[in-house]
Design goal:
about 240 residues; Rossmann fold; about 30% helix; alpha/beta
Amino acid sequence: MSFRELPHIKAKPGDIARNVIAVGDPGRVDLLAQLLEKPRVVNENRGLKTVTGLYKGVPVTIATHGIGCPSAMIVFEELGMLGARRIVRIGTTGGLRKDMKIGEVVVATGAGYTQGGCGLGQYMPGVCGSTSPHPVLTARIIESLWRHGVGFRLGPVYSSDAFYAEDPSFAERMSHLGFVAVEMECAGLFSLGWARGWETAAVLVVSDVLPAEEKIFLGTRELADIFLKVARAVLEVFAELGEGV
């Protein structure tokens, strides 16, 4: 596919950096773009706002990937076609453990998904994708979070295809299986990363706790401070690594 044929991200070669932060909410693009020097909008088509700028002289793109694996993987694929080689998802997640708190940070060590789900069944029929993040990139992010005083929990997440489909026993069942949180895109990102040769990782902020008695869901605006702290830690990794992959 030539660059002129990309139907969703209307950016040109050179508009997308090798280092990318991917987020679900376009409002989070606006928030995190404040950390960049000389930010410029390179795509707004289909609401997939994408901004490229510099962090300590290193080009960085912050891109909206939408909701759910099928939508997000379209964006990841096109970002890759346009030059992305390192993609870190900074998103929200639902805590599955009773001891979790809203605003807590989760570094995903892997991602489970429903058999044949997340759009991966069409990529690799009959095969379960390799849904682990890049270990070296993830380790660097962990070190950076420590240096910046950002506490976090390590663990695998479950990438769900249906936000409202969980029954009351979902959190207990998934927690019993070892998952710490539920979200909607990591399995697709990690599996595509190995298939396409990208480095991938995910740092997630707990927006709600499923087993909590009081149901509260917070978004980008309410969690802005922690998103900025997480993004700075990730951007420091990009600055250290430069444009090489």
